[in-house]
Amino acid sequence: MSDVSDDAARRVVRTAFLIGAGIFAFLIWLLYLRPAAVSVPAWTASLPGVNAAFNATTTSLICLGVLAIRNGRRRLHVAFQIAALVSSGCF
């Protein structure tokens, strides 16, 4: 593997960690730091199910990514990991 691809891989990993940290910080703010709502709409009762669906999708994509990297399919692995990040961030 050449130095250029190693540098590119490090940038991708660094970017993924920064995006993940940003998402984590947003969730901490959303759950613990912002003022609580006075009234909650009825449709929010379905949100735990939606969250579970996104979590299941994310877990499946991560598992597929692990299988892809074990089979030496790096591009497919990267695609699965990006899809997992998007799926996780959607909720």
Q: Main beta sheet: strand number and arrangement?
A: none
**Low-confidence spans: pLDDT under 50, at least 5 residues?**
none
Average pLDDT works out at: 88
The total count of helices amounts to: 3
Order of helices and strands: HHH
Beta fraction: under 5%
Overall geometry comes to: flat
Helix content: over 70%
Radius of gyration: 17 Å
Distance between the termini: 37 Å
Please give the number of β-strands.
0
Estimated structural class: mainly alpha
Could you explain the architecture of this structure?
With 91 residues, the chain is mainly α. The chain contains three helices and no strands. The protein has helices spanning 3-33, 47-70, 74-90. Helix 2 (47-70) runs antiparallel to helix 3. It is flat.
Write the layout of secondary structure elements.
Blueprint: H1 3-33, H2 47-70, H3 74-90
List keywords for this structure.
single chain; 91 residues; mainly alpha; flat
Concise synopsis of the structure shown:
With 91 residues, the chain is mostly helical. Helices cover 79% and strands 0% of the residues. Helix 2 packs antiparallel against helix 3.
